[in-house]
Specification:
By secondary structure, the chain is of the alpha/beta class. It contains 31 helices and 19 strands. An eight-stranded mixed β-sheet has the order 12-11-10-13-14-15-16-17, with helices on both faces. Strands 1-2-3-4-6-9 form a six-stranded mixed β-sheet, sandwiched between helices. α11 runs antiparallel to α12 and α25 (633-653) crosses α28. It is globular.
């Protein structure tokens, strides 16, 4: 055998240890070369009498992250080429054969006559976990980092290498469907309780335990290949089975609004596959998988949530000549909700924090937020008391600016008021080193404007976190007119250190994310003023693919913050820069009724613990009320998505966005823009600029000039261009 990704060791008992260790990668992934080598291993073992069994383990700190999805992108490109040159039949057959190959390899491994065991440590996801499911024995380390799972649904796919068939034969059907729908990573102990793995042991013991099991079970078979096997939830058409499928279908529709073809494919694969022998069930799964691979949703989600996200996290926009920046201590100015969250994620990354506020009481309160978050993790079994103590030891609260001396980076997170920011900037620069980068966590105020408060604008940059900081994955890095490469490199190195995903945008009021998402909230306000029932507005948002409706989102980001932003915009740009309808609504909510959103339990919703319901007082806002039966729900969905995507197109024309990857990744991770679309610009590209511009014009006729397609979009529509095609050169140069 010629192996480069696996090493083979055979002990005196004929048990092979196959160690997966890809020399040119930090993590093992499934590639064509890996599949070729698995083919060789299976053939060799099956034909060698002296070999009695095989343990598959990893030579790295993690087992594997699964398949390299760029391999699927390549298959998609070849499918498109064949479709043009040889027709649909040849193209479809190629896609089916290529996408089913891994499933066939795993089935051969499972039935080759020699038992296999998997020794799992660290991450084991997707196609890699499907590999272990094809082994007759699975043992995982008890390390807190060990996770197994099938997360394919999160990138528009579903487990296509036997995952739907094996999981549904190991677990009760309802539990299996829930696991496949959620795509979550599962800890070892929980996975054992779910019957996904057989044993848990210390890392140093798992290989030997796996070997011992193989010696004791030389004729082991998978449960479904043994005589008398019965499904965990009985037959599909049994009384028990039929209690599962109607609610499962209803739940899937409720949660996805049928926006995700992969979820429907999971349902179909499991439903049909459980009525068939394993080999036929796998064929059913492969056919659905090939179908999903042809979907626009899968193509867009893979590109944005796997390829582009990975490229940005690895520093796609980092200035190549800037040296790596080591950040040991960060000064966080402001210990309020945002500052406290920034301090927490920074300390969590092993970086020391000087947390400054106007007095020690406020600073200590900010540190207490980290104590609360870590205590919650301890209560859930995800951290230990020692972890909390270590993290808290890295956060030093203070009210003295002199304590900022010696920090490697400043992150300012004080109130969204220019005079307040001006004061802390000046006091901070008086004590920090001359080469220290100053970053402002502003959500709307232009960085160039704030940089005027600094004596060194080339070292001034925006680092915009999203709320709540500890949960949100995105960070928006904003370049002012004079921001230098070192500032950008430092910001990107910091964001990478705290394990967030960065996008880099040029300066403007609201930058990228807020420009788009504030349009979503505004559209909800305008609909409310039109007399559309609030519940219908909210449901239209969720049906369109947004995580929550526009009114609920406004509550989450705080109505009083929206009121402050509106007034600041009005003061800076004049009354025509704000919507009078929105001004009326926010004044009614914030000023007249002191409804600030979720944070004080009163917003568009009333909050009672975890429960919420629309505030009945909204009826006073609506002078007229439309008949819901006469409202076009499809048009509502279009309005809520188009207003965001159109604003994204405007940010491209304005030069705020120079790389389409950042608009798409930023829109999904930052404000949850319909993930199935691939993001705001992919939404337009997927529809086609011509069709999107036509839709904008229809909405413009009915609802006004806010839907007027911008000049760039009209030009692209005329030329048949896409954003990714048009911006390809700028993307490479970025």
């Amino acid at each position: 055998m010629k192996l480069t990704n696996f090493t083979i060791e055979t002990d005196a008992d004929g048990i092979v240890l196959a160690t997966w260790d890809m020399k040119d990668r930090s993590m093992n992934v499934i590639t064509v070369a890996v599949m070729d080598e698995l083919d060789q291993i299976i053939d060799h073992f099956a034909g060698t009498e002296a070999i009695k069994g095989c343990v598959i383990a990893s030579g790295k700190d993690s087992f594997s992250g699964g398949a390299d999805l760029t391999m699927l992108q390549a298959s998609g490109a070849e499918y498109a080429r064949l479709l043009k040159t040889k027709g649909a039949e040849a193209a479809n057959q190629f896609l089916l054969d290529s996408s089913a190959r891994l499933s066939k390899i795993y089935r051969r491994l499972e039935t080759c006559g020699k038992p296999f065991a998997a020794a799992i440590h660290g991450t084991c996801l997707g196609g890699a976990f499907e590999l272990t499911l094809a082994c007759q024995f699975r043992i995982a380390s008890d390390d807190a980092r060990t996770r197994v799972g099938l997360p394919e649904v999160k990138v528009g796919l579903f487990p296509g290498a036997g995952g739907t068939q094996r999981v549904a034969r190991l677990m009760p059907t309802g539990d299996a469907l829930q696991m496949l729908f959620k795509g979550e990573q599962i800890r070892a102990a929980a996975a054992k309780g779910m019957n996904l793995i057989h044993a848990v042991a210390p890392r140093e013991q798992i290989v030997q335990i796996a070997k011992d099991w193989l010696k004791a079970n030389p004729a082991a078979k998978a449960p479904w290949d043994t005589e008398g096997y019965k499904l965990p939830s009985n037959k599909v058409y049994s009384a028990a089975g039929m209690q599962i499928w109607p609610p499962a279908s209803a739940i899937a529709r409720r949660e996805t609004q049928d926006n995700y073809p992969a979820v429907r494919a999971i349902l179909s694969s499991v439903y049909e596959g459980l009525q068939l022998p394993m080999d036929l069930g796998l064929r059913v799964e492969s056919r659905y998988f090939a179908k999903i691979l042809r979907s626009t949703e899968a193509a867009m989600m893979i590109r944005t949530l796997f390829v582009s996200k990975g490229e940005l996290e690895k520093g796609a926009r980092r200035p190549p000549k800037a040296p790596p920046q080591t950040i040991r201590t960060v000064g966080v100015l402001g210990a309020g909700f945002m500052g406290a969250g920034i301090a927490y994620v920074t300390a969590q990354a092993g970086i020391d924090v000087i947390l400054l506020d106007r007095d020690m009481e406020a600073a200590e309160k900010g540190k207490a937020y980290s104590h609360k978050l870590m205590t919650d993790q301890i209560m859930k079994g995800r951290a230990k008391t020692a972890d909390r103590d270590a993290l808290l030891a890295r956060i030093r609260p203070t009210a003295d600016y002199a304590d900022l001396k010696g920090v490697d980076l400043i992150v300012e997170a004080v109130f969204e008021q220019q005079d307040v920011k001006k004061g802390v900037t000046e006091q901070t620069e008086a004590v920090i080193g001359k080469d220290i980068i100053f970053a402002s966590n502003t959500s709307t105020i232009p960085i160039t404007q704030l940089a005027k408060n600094s004596k060194r604008p080339e070292q001034f940059i925006g680092i915009h976190f999203f709320s709540p900081v500890e949960k949100m994955l995105l960070v928006e890095i904003i370049l002012g007119e004079k921001t230098g490469d070192l500032a950008l490199a430092t910001a990107l190195d910091y964001v990478r250190a705290i394990r967030k995903t960065p996008i880099v945008v040029n300066d403007s009021r609201g930058f990228f994310a807020n420009r788009c998402v504030l349009n979503y909230i505004l559209e909800g306000h305008l609909m409310l003023d039109e007399g559309i029932p609030p519940a219908m507005i909210e449901n239209a948002g969720k049906m369109a693919g947004m995580p929550v409706g526009p009114l609920s989102l406004n509550d989450e980001v705080a109505l009083d913050l929206g009121w402050k932003i509106l007034n600041a915009t009005k003061a800076d740009l004049g009354p025509k820069a704000v919507s009078p309808v929105q001004e009326k609504i926010l004044e009614f909510m914030v000023v007249k009724n002191e409804r600030f959103g979720r944070k004080n339990g009163k917003g568009f919703y009333d909050y009672d613990g975890r429960n919420k319901k629309l505030w009945p007082g909204l009826a006073k806002l609506q002078k007229k009320k439309l008949d819901p039966d006469k409202i076009d729900i499809g048009e509502l969905k279009h309005r809520l998505l188009v207003t965001q995507a159109l604003e994204a197109a405007r940010t491209v024309e304005d030069g705020v966005i120079v790389d389409p990857r950042e608009a798409d990744v930023g829109s999904i991770l930052g404000f949850g823009f319909a993930p199935y679309s691939g993001g705001t610009l992919s939404y337009i590209d997927g529809m086609g600029a011509k069709a999107f511009a036509a839709l904008c014009k229809e909405l413009e006729k009915k609802h006004g000039p806010r839907f007027k397609p911008n000049k760039l979009l009209v030009e692209m529509a005329a030329k048949g261009e896409t954003f990714y095609g048009r911006m390809a050169g700028r993307k490479q140069a970025a």
